[in-house]
TrEMBL record:
It holds the Pfam family DUF4395. InterPro entries: DUF4395. It comes from the Bacteria. This is DUF4395 domain-containing protein. Residues 27-163 form the DUF4395 domain. Residues 1-29 are annotated as: Disordered.
Length: 174
């Protein structure tokens, strides 16, 4: 899809079409899938570590993943380390995407991942070691679906919340 047909995004040929300051640049939809693939592998390692009794290692790796989810949720998927790896090393080797994607749903999905992994970390720190593996397994399912089938559960949650009017409304409309 040409960039001039994307709603709410600037048209480089027409500087007057500059977006409001809070609008983010569209992203290549293959970037979040790349990130999900890396995340899925690391979450599978956490599950393996948790099942084999290496609870400290599992908790530590899940804490790192929670921090990466926080980075993606608060800085946006375009500024995430995996996004940088995709832009620097993978995207130059690929053809241009057929269309670009709004970064809001994948950024929201990062927040969902943060919530799930943070709950696992907190429960693990409170001495409930099995919660680390369970949280990692839940997050793995979502990352796997995104990486393999291009089905983002967090993005779908975002769209449902927008349709319900709980997200995406301006303060004046609320």
């Amino acid at each position: 899809m040409p960039s001039d047909s994307l709603p709410n995004f600037p048209n480089p040929a027409n500087p007057a079409s500059a977006p409001p300051p809070r609008t983010r640049r569209p992203i290549d939809p293959r970037g979040p899938r790349f990130s999900a693939a890396i995340t899925a592998v690391l979450l599978l390692v956490v599950v393996f570590l948790a099942l084999t009794g290496a609870s400290v290692a599992a908790l530590s790796l899940l804490a790192v993943l929670a921090a990466l989810f926080a980075w993606g949720a608060f800085a946006g998927v375009g500024r995430h380390p995996y996004g940088w790896l995709f832009k620097r090393f993978v995207r130059p080797r690929l053809a241009a995407p057929a269309e670009l994607e709004n970064p809001a749903p994948p950024t929201f999905a990062q927040g969902v991942g943060l919530f799930v992994t943070a709950v696992g970390v907190v429960l693990g720190l409170l001495g409930l070691a099995p919660a680390v593996g369970v949280a990692a397994a839940l997050a793995f399912v979502a990352a796997f679906l995104n990486a393999v089938f291009d089905y983002c559960l967090g993005c779908q949650m975002y769209l449902l919340l927008v349709r319900a009017g709980l997200l995406g409304r301006s303060p004046a409309a609320a």
